[in-house]
Amino acid sequence: MRRSARITTLAAGTVAAAALAVTGLAVGHTPTGAAAHEPRHTGVVIAHGADRHPSQTATDWVTYADHVVEVTPVDERDIPPSQEEIDRGEGVILRGVTLRVDKVLWTRSGATQAAPASFDWTAYGWQFTDGDVHNRTEMAGEGQPRIETGHHYVMALEWEAPRCVPGDGELPGRWRGLGSESIIPYDNGVLGEGEFQGRPLQLKAARATALDPGDPDYSLRDEFTGHTAAELADRLTGTPPGQKTQRSLRQADAPAEECS
């Protein structure tokens, strides 16, 4: 099975490195970047975890999202690993990515927060090993884009209000994704074309990776590969929301006003 509900998503907007499970799966891609940050390995490490909300279908998107937007990553920076990971000699270096909103495609009726002009996103970066933070291999979530500058994407976003996390205090409000299927590559104005799992896909390759409608993991990315964002927006506009059946993975968190 190429994708499942177990897959983690940085569409969720944040990730705890300790909660990640990674595999040795590598796709044919050699990372690029500044010389000091060039990995000594090739390929992409694939990470697994859990989705926040269902995100495969149009019903999922209109049920859980506040907005669906076209975005362009315009800046990124390393998020240093924890001291525990450094002491252990291996861990994850995440990336803080700034995303510019180029167009709002769809908005949920009753959304309390207007779509942002830009927002920050926490994306997969690299796995480092052998006690050397420069001995790094690119990471991506299974079945989803890595979110790289030079590319474009369509995202389903949910506003998460400020909340109180036991032991951490108040976390500010932020934009988050739904799950592993809530980001679609969108280079050249074509859904499915662009960066996916850390490697660029032309339309022919994107179509080759798309699942058939009868597959249980069939998603909007599969259905709309080769189509435009406007066509996707039309589908969302004509789709009624369903009943919410899955709460946030942080359902135990309290509202921010309850922080002491």
Question: Could you give a quick summary of the protein structure above?
Answer:
By secondary structure, this protein is mainly β. It has 5 helices and 14 strands. It has helices spanning 58-64, 83-88, 203-209, 220-224, 229-237; strands spanning 21-23, 44-48, 67-79, 91-107, 118-129, 132-141, 153-160, 163-165, 169-171, 174-176, 183-185, 194-196, 199-201, 254-255.
Write a structural description.
The chain has helices at residues 58-64, 83-88, 203-209, 220-224, 229-237, and strands at residues 21-23, 44-48, 67-79, 91-107, 118-129, 132-141, 153-160, 163-165, 169-171, 174-176, 183-185, 194-196, 199-201, 254-255. By secondary structure, it is mainly β. Strands 1, 2, 3, 4, 5, 6, 7, 10 and 11 form a nine-stranded mixed beta sheet that branches. Strands 9-8-14 form a three-stranded antiparallel beta sheet, with no helix packed on it. A two-stranded antiparallel sheet has the order 12-13. Strand 8 (163-165) and strand 9 form a beta hairpin. The chain is globular, with a radius of gyration of 18 Å.
